[in-house]
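Listing S7. Sequence submitted for prediction.
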Amino acid sequence: MIENLLESLNALLLQHPHLVHLMHTLFWIKHWILMGIMGVFIYLIYTDEQQALSRKRTTLKPAPGGIFIA
């Protein structure tokens, strides 16, 4: 069944070359949209506040009154 679908799709694309160009354009649009989404998530990873705080490696000051809080 899938083979017949692919054969009919290939025949359709051979008869209409503008559809091949349209599919090529849509592929590149999808590619750049996915790259943009990936870039947003990578940006969010590197600008996360908790990770920025852990990168500073600040030492904790002891609590006033000599009380140790673990």
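Caption to Listing S7: primary sequence and predicted structure tokens for the chain studied. The chain has one domain: 2-56. The chain is about 75% helix and 0% strand.
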